[in-house]
Amino acid sequence: MAHDESASAGPGTRLAGAGRRPEWTGTPDHPGAVVAPPVWRASTHLYPDMAALRAHPANEDGEFYYGRRGAPTQWALADALTRLEPGATGTVLYPSGVAAIAGALLTVLRPGDVLLMTDNAYEPSRVMGRGLLADFGVTTRWFDPADIAGFEAAICDRTRCVLLESPGSLTMEVQDVPALAAIAKSRGIVTVLDNTWASPLGFAALEHGADIAVMSLTKHVSGHSDCMMGSASAGSDWYRRLRLRAQGLGNVVSPDDAALMLRGLRTMHLRLAAETRSAAAIAQWLAARPEVARVLCPMLPGSPGHALWTRDFTGGCGLFSFVLSGGTSQARDALIDALRLFGIGYSWGGFESLATPVDPASIRTASRWPLPGMDEADRFGVRLSIGLEETGDLIADLERGLAAWEAAL
Ligand SMILES: *Cc1c(COP(=O)(O)O)cnc(C)c1O
After folding, report:
1. Confidence label for 7 from pLDDT (cuts 50, 70 and 90)
2. Residue 2 pLDDT more than 60?
3. Are residue 351 and residue 224 in the same domain, yes or no?
4. Mind listing the pLDDT tens digit for each residue in 166-218?
5. CA of 221 to the centre of ligand 1 (A)
6. Whose CA is nearest to atom 6 of ligand 1?
7. 99 Cα: distance to centroid of ligand 1 (angstroms)
8. What is the pLDDT of residues 324-375, one digit of tens each?
9. Most buried one in 21, 32, 151, 361, CB count within 10 A?
10. Pick from 215, 231, 266: which residue ends a domain?
11. How far is CA 315 from CA 162, 166, 298, 350, 400, in A?
12. What does the alpha-carbon distance between residue 306 and residue 399 come to, in Å, rounded to a whole number?
């Protein structure tokens, strides 16, 4: 059976075939016998004889050796993710998205180096800069995600790496990744991009200048809120180094989880398309409400970041935020508590909708909150992860929430 995984095939076609190499889905007598790569539970891999052990190539990709280097289930997932990322020659899997960010940064950085991190980075990435990386002699400095000149001015002789995230966590600023990555490249700086929001279906990270594309598979790839994993994809040079560092750190993912991720991957384009459509409609509805001061959603025409999103992205997702007009933190809690369809919980990208409070002021150090152009009083935000429920039902739920907010003022 032939799978059309060529770059010209549509996303659904590529997702249907990705990672299903016949030798991973069958036996020598019947290659490609089953559709889904089976779960290979294995720590020990056996050699037929001593000659085979002696002849074993040193640390080759996709070769049986020992469980920590994976088996066909994990190889199939890594292979599938590599095929989705134009320009990638390989993908390393990590036990979580945070482990993938740590794995990438610990591959690039050395003691004495400076890391420039976008101010809207996922909070555990910030914690990594202040904690883990500081402990190993790396200095982290933060920059305003929307200020390209400020980014350039922040570069010094010791700057070795930049961590971008676009759209960024909570406030959803879209970064000019091609411009920032080009500046970094001209100064010999490595660009790592946290591409969890868009996935490679929505943003071709390496083609837009990133050297390493990191993703939390926990979100869109799983899509079902039951499994955690992360990935880093890169061209040959960085892929080789990422892989060696991940091996050195002892990173390994379970074949059961890899099989769940492969299952999620097959429908990711449908979920993302549905969530994007629904989120855009809900963002539009929220933008017209008097209780709402600002909707932070790159898919919404007129919102900051929409022009860059239209220029660089081929898709969106269900994650965005909105800011209430004035009010109090207690009224915002009443809003979220009144929602019946939205769960209250961290994470996002699952089939079920979620709502969480947004309070970036205490986290940011290089950019202001409320955002430039916003009123000081408009500071209580809500982040929504739009799932697969009917859009009209979610809007009715939000209407109930806004009524509770009004009543609590
Ligand atoms: C959730 C998230 C991560 C971390 O992923 P985990 O799998 O939860 O460790 C990294 N980056 C972004 C943008 C995220 O939202």
Report:
1. low
2. no
3. no
4. 999 999 999 999 999 999 999 999 999 999 999 999 999 999 999 999 999 99
5. 12
6. 97
7. 9
8. 999 999 999 999 999 999 999 999 999 999 999 999 998 899 998 998 889 9
9. 151
10. 266
11. 24, 13, 11, 17, 30
12. 25
Residue 68 catalytic? yes
Catalytic-role residue among 113, 176, 194, 211: 194
Same domain, 255 and 273: no
Asked if 165 and 118 count as a contact pair (C-beta separation under 8 A), the reply is yes
Provide the residue type at 361 as one letter.
Answer: A
User: Which is catalytic among the residues 20, 21, 160, 219?
Assistant: 219
Given 41, 68, 158, 340, the catalytic residue: 68
The reply to whether ligand 1 has any atom less than 6 angstroms from the CB of 196 is yes
How many structural domains compose the chain?
2
Residues 199 and 301 grouped into a single domain: no
Q: Are 37 and 56 in contact (CB under 8 A)?
A: no
Q: Look up the domain containing 103 and give its range.
A: 11-266
Q: Is residue 58 very low, low, confident or very high in pLDDT (cuts 50, 70, 90)?
A: confident
For a ligand 1 pocket test, name from 216, 224, 228 the mutation site with the most ligand atoms within 8 angstroms of its C-beta.
216
Residue 219 is among the residues annotated as catalytic for this protein: yes
Q: Which tokens in the block code for residue 150?
A: 């400020």
Please give the Cα distance from 32 to 12 (Å, whole number).
Answer: 20
Q: Which residue in the block uniquely carries the two structure tokens 């990438």?
A: 104
Look up 194 and say whether it is catalytic: yes
Is the pLDDT confidence value at 57 over 90? no
- In this prediction, residue 304 carries a pLDDT of 82
Burial of 37 (0-12, 13-18, 19+ CB in 10 A): buried
Q: Which residues on adjacent β-strands are paired with residue 140?
A: 115
CATH code for the domain in which residue 60 is found: 3.40.640.10
